[in-house]
Amino acid sequence: xxxxxxxxxxxxxxxxxxxxxxxxxxxxxxxxxxxxxxxxxxxxxxxxxxxxxxxxxxxxxxxxxxxxxxxxxxxxxxxxxxxxxxxxxxxxxxxxxxxxxxxxxxxxxxxxxxxxxxxxxxxxxxxxxxxxxxxxxxxxxxxxxxxxxxxxxxxxxxxxxxxxxxxxxxxxxxxxxxxxxxxxxxxxxxxxxxxxxxxxxxxxxxxxxxxxxxxxxxxxxxxxxxxxxxxxxxxxxxxxxxxxxxxxxxxxxxxxxxxxxxxxxxxxxxxxxxxxxxxxxxxxxxxxxxxxxxxx
Length: 296
Fold this sequence. Notes:
By secondary structure, this protein is of the alpha/beta class. Helices cover 47% and strands 10% of the residues. The chain has a single domain (10-295), classed as Rossmann fold, CATH 3.40.50. 31% of the residues are buried.
């Protein structure tokens, strides 16, 4: 038995490996718990096969969190969502440190052998290995349809520096942001409703009191509770810990790890991708040019 079933369209987050997808999913998860929205965390296609729409209908899903999105499986109808990408060069560098040191190997049978190999070679060789190991992810980013009116396209580099503004924009685009004053008289009813929904999620109550919209003030509190320093043991963005899954949190870090040879190798493999995503405006970009820009 359920109550207050949402009347809005299905909501969706589409991410990619090493594009802040774990962090974004955590915030979506908190929101859905309070709001009484049934969330589907989809790491890959195993839960739904090739029929995501059918899975959503059968399971009564309100919010899809597809953290390793593959465009060919997104056959959804009547939904609103947001999609986050990252500079592919930063993705490769982040993946190198994560796969070498910290990323869980559970349910990823290829990773242990890859990790062993990464720890046997130089950093330059390791980053070159990562370019190929992450080819499926980078190809999925290239094949994505970036012209969907009902999907908000975001870059991690623009989203994460001001996550409060970013998540307000996302939930506003999704049409579920309540911007009314969260006065004291509203807070106790909200807490009681959220508690009901959390108990429903934990199967301790047979019904939920689902919300049509989510208070902006509560959303900002959830973002604050999920800020980078909380995940990174108190470190600020830009302070690196190579052993941490949340290593550095800074855009443009690829410049510190690419060599001229890696630049040429990356161009040969993914030169069109950085142009398509707008991270470069010309195919003759170079490490030297970016180093000069950073110094300035």
